Amino acid sequence: MHDAVSSCGYTFLFNLLDYSSGVFPVTWVEEDLDQLPKDFQIGKLNGVAQGAYKLYDAKAMHGLPVGVQIVGRRLEEEKVLAIMTRVEEMLGDDAYKLLQVD
Question: Is 90 exposed, middle or buried (0-12, 13-18, 19+ CB in 10 A)?
Answer without folding.
Answer: exposed
